[in-house]
Amino acid sequence: MRIGVPTEIKNHEYRVGLAPAAARELALHGHEVLVQAGAGAGIGAADAAYAAAGATIVPTAAEVFARAEMVVKVKEPQLAECKMLRPGQVLFTYLHLAPDPEQAEALMASGCTAIAYETVTAADGSLPLLAPMSEVAGRMSIQAGAHALEKAQGGRGVLLGGVPGVPPGKVVILGGGVAGTNAAHVALGSGADVTIVDKSVPRLRQLDAIFGGRAKTAYSTADAVEALVTDADLVIGAVLIPGASAPKLVTRAHLRTMQRGSVIVDIAIDQGGCLETSRATTHDAPTFVEEGVIHYCVANMPGAVARTSTYALNHATLPYALALADKGWKRALADDAGLRNGLNVHEGRITFLAVAEALGRTADYRPADACAA
What we know:
Blueprint: E1 2-5, H1 20-28, E2 32-36, H2 47-52, E3 56-58, H3 61-67, E4 70-72, H4 79-82, E5 90-93, H5 101-110, E6 113-116, H6 131-148, E7 170-174, H7 178-189, E8 193-198, H8 201-210, E9 216-219, H9 222-231, E10 234-237, H10 252-257, E11 263-266, E12 287-290, E13 293-296, H11 306-327, H12 329-335, H13 337-340, E14 343-346, E15 349-350, H14 353-359, H15 368-371
Parallel strand pairs: 1-2, 1-4, 2-3, 4-5, 5-6, 7-8, 7-10, 8-9, 10-11, 11-13
Antiparallel strand pairs: 6-14, 12-13, 14-15
């Protein structure tokens, strides 16, 4: 198979779909890998490293898209990229379609087969291709929030770890999944007062055991969320419903009760955000203020630590990319129900139910099982 890797063009996105080591693995399997010139610059991977790995360097994204049978990316295709996709071509990347009808329409119009990292599942129901970036975003959320809390950034002027005689900052983490757990690790390491909120009692028990009681846990109810965010210095939004829009746990009314200069980092922004007031921001302008509360809603947080993120992501995606290339997409999906769950768009139809429901396009829904049959 001919596999194409274009340069990412989203604002301040420095990751790349395949690092040289991953390109080499595909080449060793007999596949042709086309890499756009400069695609790896953001992680310090020169074109020469890709050439040494057996890849062919091509000058433009247009040539990558025109020649590739499968395009491997990191972020969702921008509209200019969607226009270069074609029927029969496979796109393997993050999509996050639920809050993005414009991208969904463009992918449907292209006729391509789009497989989303974020809805691929493992045998235990976990999300193996979302997990590495959730780990990165969770850990980054605390350093981003701590920076925004500084007075010069408009924050309350609170040091999360406190100092002797001065209490630590209060961190409330909404969601005890991969992102929330990693946020808690860093927050606890900084010395903050940490509370994790989740609606699963078994998960709360696991978190209590993981952190040895150092992190407080709370069962998620409207009352609990309201009380906790009101008193928080930093709130991390880390809730997830695979493929679907994130639930709005924090309302504008909640913000009005919060302390002026407190901070909310909404990791769930890729799926629309878990705040009523969230809107996607970029690394150029990462924050905005609503009701006196600083919002950090960067939709590609891990892009800021591109080298770490790319290698972490490649370690997870490479086995699936190899399966798609070695077997062809139809057989690969037929053989692996978890990979089949990644199919979001095929030949103009939505193939993931939660996405179809979120977009109000159930009439255009076709089950992935039927597409891979």
